[in-house]
Structures are given as structure tokens and as C-alpha cells.
Amino acid sequence: MKQFKFFRLYTILFFTLTSSVVHAENRDISPSFNINKVIIPSAGLGTRCLPWTKSIPKEMLPIGNMPAFQFIVKEVLNSGIYNIIVIANDNKQAISHYFSHQANFENILYERGKDHLIVNVNKIIDALQFSYIPQPELLGTGHAILMAQDAIGYEYFCVMWPDEVFFTRPALGELIEIAKKYRANVIAVREVPMEHVSRYGVITIQKELEENVFEISGIVEKPTIENAPSNLATCGRYVFSPTMFTALSLIGPGYGGEIQYTDGLCKLIEMGERVIAVKLIGEQPHDIGNTLGWLGANITYAMQHPVYSSPIKELCAGLLTK
């Protein structure tokens, strides 16, 4: 069984590499900087949020009165991107159902005078183009990105992990500006305590280009404190050149026997591409990929909400005095 899995893996890599060569031969030498597509890998099982995710995609777990994925989509829209490519299998149909018009449901709400309750989500549906690509086998984060190669073509593109949520900040738009300024790949990073570096991919800084903007020479995945090159960890927002597809095609299985995007990023640097890290100052992403993070995100959101904040603060104050 294990041999069969690796046979399938290398078969996928072979055809992906062939596709990369075809793209390179049939496109202009310089890829387009008209960045208007984002890949959102969402095919994972969500094991850190079980048993909820047995029936509910973790991307659709609520934060306040909205599913978490709606915050991701709002950030995309506020960053000037209008084409969303979701990597998702049949177990994530709740995402496509939510982000599409439901005529019968909407007619019933209209007849009952409650159609105003879905005005905001319908505005998002009308403003964006959603497409869905399956990932038949869960062979890693890099493999998920590879699934969208034909949909992207030969142009720069964005990647977002839906586990990392901003409530108001269009972080992706900030990265796009830096990518266009330096004509380079760009990743978002945040400062983490040194005792937590073993949880993340941590960057190796080559030089500082401007305040909080660094050119990097590599990423170390989940290093020990002693081996960590910095305390700046990746945090789920990226802008890549199409060469990233070639880089991912050239690497083999890495951590966990899967194709990891961090290995592809290191290969990208090895191939001579510039990769720039932007240290996020201000609002930091909320990691909702685990139960504690999801609970914390809900508490933070409620405390900041113009309608819910006062009653929630009263509720919490009452609980804390007991």
C-alpha cells in the first residue's frame, strides 16, 4: 500500500513537471504582475478540530455571526482580488453552498421580510468568482498548490491558509504591494516567542530591505530553539511567481512524507528567485485551526463587536467573579 501511494505521488509529480515545462515554453519570459487570483487550500480533514469537523468543515465554523471562511473571503475582496480558487473535496460542499445563491431559500426570506439578513454575503457572492478544484489525495500543502497550476497560468498569484484569520486587516493586499514594488515573491511573517519556534516554519534573514521587510535565504521547518535562525514565523499569506509550480514539481516528499510548500519555497530560492518576508505589525492573525485558537478568536471578536461587546463583557465579568 505504501509503495502504491508513492507510485501515485511520483506519477503526479511527473505530469505536473511536464505541465510546468509546457507553460514555460508557451509564455512570455516575464510572468504577469496583474495579480488577481488566490488559491485557498481547504481539502484537509481538520483533525485538530474533531469531532466538530466530522460533519462541519473547519473553515465554516462560526466566529461570532459569520463562518470563519467569510473573514478570509472579505480579506480577499478588500485586497483587490476577485478570483478565488478553493482546493476542496466533496466533504467541503458546505463552502460552495454558502458562497452561491440559493433561489428558493432567498425567495422565502424575501416573502417573510428577512432578506436583509443575507445582504452582506450576497454582495460577496456577486463580487467574486469562485472555482473549486479537488485534491484527490491529501499529499501535502505543496501538492494542494500544484492542483491549481492550470487555473493560474503564467502569472503571479496569492495563497492563503484559511486557518489564519484577520478580522479587519487586508494583509494580503499589503503583500501584493510589496511584491509589485520589489518584483519578487513575498511571504507574511510574525514574531513568535523563541520557546514556540518549534511549532512553525521560521525564516532565515539575508538582509533587511526596509523597516519590517527582509530578503530571506531560506526557511527552517519547526526548528529547535538552538537551531532557529530567527523568531519570525510564516503566517498563512503568500504571493508567488509561477516558478513556484516548477519548484514544487522538482522536490520530493518532505516532512510527513508529503510535498511541503516550505520545501518548494526553499527550492524557489535555490533556483535564483527573490523571496521577501514582511513582518506584520498591528493586528495579528487568529489561528483557528485548533479548538483553543477558535475559542480565543470568538472571544476576541465578540469583545470588539459594536453590538455584542458590552453584553459579552458583562457576561465575562460575572463569570470571573464566581
Can you offer a commentary on this structure?
The chain has one domain: Spore Coat Polysaccharide Biosynthesis Protein SpsA, Chain A, CATH 3.90.550.10. The chain has about 325 residues and is α/β, with parallel strands linked by helices. The strands form three sheets. A nine-stranded mixed beta sheet has the order 5-4-1-6-11-8-12-10-9. A two-stranded antiparallel ribbon has the order 2-3. About 40% of the residues lie in helices and about 20% in strands.
Give the arrangement of secondary structure elements:
Layout: H1 2-26, E1 37-41, E2 62-63, E3 66-67, H2 68-78, E4 83-87, H3 93-98, H4 103-111, H5 119-127, E5 129-133, H6 141-146, H7 149-152, E6 157-160, E7 164-165, H8 171-182, E8 185-191, E9 201-210, E10 213-221, E11 232-240, H9 243-250, H10 261-270, E12 275-279, E13 286-287, H11 291-304, H12 309-321
Helix pairs in contact: 1-9, 9-10, 11-12
In short:
This protein has 322 residues and is α/β, with parallel strands linked by helices. Helix content is 39%, strand content 21%.
Structural descriptors:
39% helix; Spore Coat Polysaccharide Biosynthesis Protein SpsA, Chain A; alpha/beta; 322 residues; disordered N terminus; 12 helices; single chain; nine-stranded mixed β-sheet
Q: Strand content of the residues, in percent?
A: 15-25%
CA gyration radius, whole angstroms = 21 Å
CATH topology: Spore Coat Polysaccharide Biosynthesis Protein SpsA, Chain A
Helical residue percent band: 25-40%
Number of helices: 12
Count of individual domains: 1
H-E string: HEEEHEHHHEHHEEHEEEEHHEEHH
Tell how many strands the DSSP assignment holds. Answer: 13
Structural class: alpha/beta
- CA-CA gap between termini: 56 Å
Largest sheet, in brief, is: 9 strands, mixed
**Unreliable residue runs:** 1-27
Going across the biggest sheet, name each strand in turn: 5-4-1-6-11-8-12-10-9
CATH superfamily: Spore Coat Polysaccharide Biosynthesis Protein SpsA, Chain A
CATH class type? Alpha Beta
Mean pLDDT, all residues:
90
